[in-house]
Amino acid sequence: xxxxxxxxxxxxxxxxxxxxxxxxSISLDxxxxxxxIGLILVIALYVRLLPLRFGAYISEFDPYxxxxxxxxxxxxxxxxGLVGIFEFFNHxxxxxxxxxxxxxxxxxxxxxxxxxxxxxxxxxxxxVGVTLEEVAIFLPVVFGVIGTxxxxxxxxxxxxxxxxxxAAFFYSLSPAVIPRSNLGWYDTDGFxxxxxxxxxxxxxxxxxxxxxxxxxxxxxxxxxxxxxxxSTWGAFIYLYIMYALFTIVLVLLSLLPKNYELxxxxxxxxxxxxxxxxxxxxxxxxxxxxxxxxxIAIALxxxxxxVDLKAYTKxxxxxxxxxxxxxxxxxxxxxxxxxxxxxxxxxxxxxNYEGIPTVVRTVQEQAGASFVYFYxxxxxxxxxxxxxxxxxxxxKDPRKIFIILFSLTSIYVASNFVRLIVLAAPFIMILGxxxxxxxxxxxxxxxxxxxxxxxxxxxxxxxxxxxxxLVVSLIIILVGTYYSxxxxxxxxxxxxxxxxxxxxxxxxxxxxxxxLEWMKANIPNESIVAAWWDYGYWISFIAGKKTLxxxxxxxxxxxxxxxxxxxxxxxxxxxxxHQLGAEYIVIYLxxxxxxxxxxxxxxxxxxxxxxxxxxxMAKIAGKDPDIYINRTNTEGSIYTDAFWNTFLGKLIxxxxxxxxxxxxxxxxxxxxxxxxPTKPDGQSKLILVYKxxxxxxxxxxxxxxxxx
Length: 708
Fold this sequence. Notes:
Shape: globular
Strand order of the largest sheet: 4-3-5-11-10
Largest sheet: 5 strands, mixed
CATH architecture of the domain at 511-705: 3-Layer(aba) Sandwich
Strand content: 5-15%
Distance between the termini: 118 Å
Structural class: alpha+beta
CATH topology of the domain at 511-705: Rossmann fold
């Protein structure tokens, strides 16, 4: 009895130990997984909060429009109750594009302002003490962290945990992503990227699901987030086209998943309903040329489901008849559909097309991206992404084909429009994560497999190989980590534009903050301020003054007229100011003061202000920039007499002194010598009423017209 009892006890103990070990093993595995993704999210949060060292500011230019629109919604709700939630669509902006102004709801996307306003009102409702400006500053960081998490989930869906971890880690630190998800980046792409990625994640899950209800549910969520993207960011058209293109490719490859219509149709209907409800979009996605792809994709889904398409490939006449019929139908639809591919979208698709407006071509963030941008953004992941692309291509998996199509097309659009490199980032990260996992797995598998040779020398070689592979693997991971961290942190800690004026050194300057405060206090509210369009949002939404053009570039004829004003002679320029009703003119110069041992302080015109932007002004005005640049004279100023005789040349209060070697480079040295007085003298048509006092990098000058 005792002996039998002890055996039974021992057996029970073994079972308990087995279940305990299994439980601990599972728990440790889960804990490790959550710890890794938690650490990655903390890194993403930390890096995006680094600009706090310079203070909490809204970044760049466009986010100030979004903040203004958010205030419109919040004030509407606070004054009118729930009815005020629609104030965005009824508001007319009187400050911009004088004298016409702009209807806010008709010209801009409502997504960012509503996300910010609802977040603020909810936090206020539950008693969280936060200002609306703080919401605008910190909310982009939250969405940046969400985007990192979604990249992990997509990587896990199309690959495995390791793929997701690597993709999320590099996404959290990539300089291709951080500037568009950083502290204060309260703009369309900062919110749009997470919405786009969530829609893609839900679409992939819907394709993967075998159960019909689950498939439809994921499709609905995909459509909701795609629709929210379409009300937030113009890049929705890319997702819209890609869903259709992906479907067409699957049909051509005979890889359409079972019940695919349950994945596609709900998503399409919901997304299209939401997007079409946005006044700015009108009926573009119902009758536009991009909508034709959707109708073709939907038709092919049902043809694939109910018609034996393979029978058409067996008969050459049937195949020709089908192709001609589809082509004829497509041609008819395209001929009656309104053209909705133009402007920036046209520049993305056909960068060399002559019909692209010059204004679009002259914006720096809308220029093409060279390999340097991709190298800086993705570095060590690039070869692994190529390997991952190869591996994805070998597998006939719709989810992997999905990522391949997005990676190819997003790289293409990013190469034409550098701003859209953020669009390519998640797909390159996922391919890179998958390729790195496969490479390391293959190397370790080869190095640790049993050796068939019994000779000592081969045994020694095997040990050496294992060591080498381990070292190489560690180098890959450590170098990638160090590079991503160092470059990512560097891009994250760059001060916001309003603190630098766009100087390339990242040096703090309070020129614009001081100038905008002066405008707010000293320029009458009824006066109109002329300035290059770059500064329109700041002057309108920070200083609260009326402007002629802004960063929305809505009226390219006006921008062309401003370019003509700056590059005309004084008489013609003042005639244009009278024509536009402007009383003040603001310019920004990229100046750097240089101390001189002989006595006076000299100034360099570095080129990051209007003294450099005049090249783009010339292109927009239809003038040859070379007539203003002296490329051959090694003695005199780099600017020709033709430049100094323009209105802009006269507004620049500096006189060329000589060329000197600065850092072993021949550099123009200038001395302060204003062409206009600070008080009316009975002769000058302008007076210089303001010049920033900050002796650092750059300066803002404000002139007032006095001849009227």
